[in-house]
Amino acid sequence: MVRLFKRLEFLPIVLLLVTVFVVGSASPAYSAQSEAIYIIANNSFPAKSLTLLQAKRIFLKTQTRVGGKAVIPVNARKDSSLRKAFVQRALHMSATEEQRYWQDQKMKAGAQLPPEVGDTVRAVFGIKNGISYCFASQYKADVAQILLKIE
Amino acid sequence: MRKNTGWFVIICWMLMASRGAAQDDTTATDPASEPSSVDSDAVVDSEAGARMNALEERLASQEERITTLEAERVAATAREQEKDRRAVELEEKLDATQMEMEEMSLTLTTAPPEKKLNIYGFFDTTFYKAWYQQENSVLRSQNPPFSTFMMSHVNIYFSSQMTETLSALVETGFSFSPNGYETNLPVDAYVYNEATGQYELAPTLVDDSEYQRVDTTIPGGITSSSVRYGSVSIVRAHLDWRPRDWLNLRVGQYLTPYGIWNVEHASTVLLGVYYPHLMNWDLVPPSQLGLQAFGDFFLADVMQLNYALTLSNGRGPISSAMDLDENKGMGARIQTIFSGNKWKITAGSYGYYGKYTDAERRAEIYLNSDLTRSYIDGSPLGSDITYLKKFQEYIITADLSVEVAGLRVFGELVHRKVHYLVHPVMNDNAQFVQVGNFSDDRKAANHYSQSAYAIVAYQLPISAIEPVLITPYVGVDWLAPDDPLTWFEQKTFRFGLNVQPSAYVAIKTEGIIDNFADVLGGRMTSISAQLAVSF
């Protein structure tokens, strides 16, 4: 093994990887709308606030309950600017990585991705223990509670 | 308004008065009778006319203004009315929307979740080519000797979330097997003839076991074209009941919750083409039939603890159909996950104890000497079980995965101890009278098996080519399947490239350098390419 690494045959591969890394790092970052995002929930939701990691676990379905109660994550539509911004800023993934994640979860454990709706605020209003997200400008007071603000 | 009206009255009165005065003057004064005053009267008339004209103009202007003001007042009233009408309309609309949303809320909170059956799956096609250091390497009898295409998986999933806490998952695997399955590979013995300096076949030493290869080709009926039938395996089929995060129950056939590779499972999810040795050698039962309790504890924002307890038939020749002893396979899994926004560290371990038992069941009939049924022991009918093979196994595994910004380092380790209780080549004193042959009983003696692998992968951060993900990787794999037989050791170096043009397709290429002991043929180098598709 040590002998293998000593050989210079690996040098071109290493150089190629370094080049790709440098070029890739320099490429423009994925841009999403910069308006603040609120994690919102139905008024029956069993928590009044969440951390970003908790929200991430809920929307990736690695955590399905809060305070012992089942919670129902609801996503914005796949192609919406809201979904793209949320995936990037809350899940720290690209849209492709998120799609890949759910495809993998289906194969690994039969998991199903959360439902998608056009109006997340309205959906959260109507689903007991429902949780979703919206842009700050879309939020309507008294319809849902804000659990977390993501800048 | 009143002021304007007042002005209007005053102006009208003045106008009428001046007109009346003018008329009186005209009728009272005869121009013919008083010619001397004509000039001065004409001047007076002209001044009065001019004044009257001015007054008439002013009157017309005032009338126009009044008309405009009147029109404005009417328009303002109309606007007010429209505003009121719209306000009422909006209020009605809002009430209707609120009622609708409340109604929807009631519906969603009381209606059960949709009972939907999801059908999906994955398959893969692999190209494989191996080169052997020794031309007549014995490895050629264990691996494909020529380049070949293979299809290892065509798996279909059926899943359903019946209620909030109940779900079911069935995964079936379609296979071309048993077509092409080989058993009893014969062993020809050659003895070196010193006189000729060559090896010569020694017929008396030749293994006379009958070589068998399954051919599933059958005539295809009226079309005369042949058909090769395959088989269907149940990869997993279980019901999950999830009343709490920390307590979930699973009943049925499930994947053993150990390590990384066995859990990732599908070829579209797995990074590489080749399975690690610890899986190829089934050092841990890949699936079990029985019960599983599992759950998660969220101990801190960045820390999660998962556990699983398994109770199953354990390993056995027909374990998915029935257990051939009372002993049940028992296992416990613990896993800790530390995660941040852009990193994740997972460490886990699984311990398993079970007893493998192979037995033959026999029915017995007890007869008297005249061959009539004997009732001496109560019944002429009975049964007996003959144990053909029995061993205990103790397994411990460990796994570690570190993911940071596209870099992933992961590995697994398995240690397995096998202790035989009954074996075909074991005498009554539990001593082995011979070492098993190369095929079936190669692990005849009590032994330890150990294997470990580690892989480093890096997902290239090239956002310009999204959605394509490119992940090169390198890894090492080591296996010592049977500690008394040290020449069985296998050291492997692997490297490859995983390209995912979409979330549903993975194209993998991989190179493998396998180092065996010289007695097994030395080095084996192979390449493979795989297309894995999920749908």
Features:
heterodimer, A: 151 residues, alpha/beta, D-Maltodextrin-Binding Protein, domain 2, 4-stranded mixed β-sheet, 6 helices, globular, B: 535 residues, alpha+beta, Porin, 3 domains, 16-stranded antiparallel barrel, two-stranded antiparallel ribbon, 20% helix
In short, what is this structure?
With 151 residues, chain A is an alpha/beta fold. Helix content of chain A is 40%, strand content 18%.
Shape descriptor of chain A? globular
Mean pLDDT of chain A: 84
Rg of chain B (C-alpha, Å): 49 Å
The helix/strand order of chain B is HHEEEEEEEEEEEEHHEEEEEEEEEEE
Helix-strand string of chain A: HHEHEEEEHHEHEE
- What's the overall average pLDDT of chain B, rounded? 86
How many structural domains does the protein architecture of chain A include? 1
**What is the distance, rounded to the nearest whole angstrom, between the alpha carbons of the first and last residues of chain B?**
81 Å
Would you give an account of this structure?
The complex is a heterodimer of chains A (151) and B (535). Chain A is of the alpha/beta class and 151 residues long. Chain A has helices spanning 2-6, 11-26, 52-59, 81-89, 95-109, 120-126; strands at 37-41, 65-66, 69-70, 72-73, 75-76, 116-117, 130-135, 145-150. Chain A has one domain: 3-Layer(aba) Sandwich (D-Maltodextrin-Binding Protein, domain 2). Chain A has six helices and eight strands, in the order ααβαββββααβαββ. In chain A, a hairpin with a 2-residue loop joins β2 and β3 (69-70). The longest helix of chain A is centred in the N-terminal third of the chain and has 16 residues, at 11-26. The N and C termini of chain A lie far apart (48 Å). The model of chain A is unreliable at 24-31 (pLDDT under 50). Chain B is an alpha+beta fold and 535 residues long. Chain B has three domains: 2-22 and 40-109; 112-177 and 230-534, Porin (Beta Barrel); 183-226, no CATH class. Chain B is built from four helices and 23 strands. Chain B has helices at residues 2-28, 38-110, 261-264, 277-280, and strands at residues 117-132, 148-150, 154-161, 166-175, 182-183, 190-193, 198-201, 212-213, 217-219, 226-228, 231-241, 248-255, 287-300, 303-312, 329-339, 343-365, 381-404, 407-422, 447-458, 469-480, 490-502, 505-515, 523-534. In chain B, strands 1-3-4-11-12-13-14-15-16-17-18-19-20-21-22-23 form a 16-stranded antiparallel β-barrel. Residues 24-36 and 434-443 of chain B have low confidence and may be disordered.
